[in-house]
Amino acid sequence: MPGRLNDVEFREAPYCPAQETGPRTNGEAVGHVQPGDLPERATLGVEEEFILLDRRTRRPVPRGDQVLETGRPDLGAGHLVPEISQSMIETVSRVCVTATELQRELTRLRRGAARA
Length: 116
Description:
The chain has helices at about 65-75, 100-115, and strands at about 5, 10, 45-50, 80, 90. By secondary structure, it is an alpha+beta fold. It has one domain (about 5-115). The protein has a three-stranded antiparallel beta sheet with strand order 3-5-4, with helices on one face. It has a two-stranded antiparallel sheet with strand order 1-2. Strand 4 and strand 5 (about 90) form a beta hairpin. The longest helix is centred in the last third of the chain and has 17 residues, at about 100-115. It is elongated and about 50 Å long.
């Protein structure tokens, strides 16, 4: 769906069906979209990776499990997931239909990850 998020303009993109890639690191299977399974409305979603840094030294710290345990009750297990390194986490937004809805979701996820 065309729109704006902050100063970024979004335009309609050509349809590209997702490929089944198997289970994610959080154990949930990735869905498979068949050609022709277009939603009635375009949707938006974002995955963001964050490096966990020591506040004093600004160096990466291996606290991924601790952050996941602390943050998942608020954000949900599917929205805060492990990354390839213990010094990283990933947030996964809900599927949104407007840029405003996505902006609220990203704010919720970023604040929750920061609190954790």
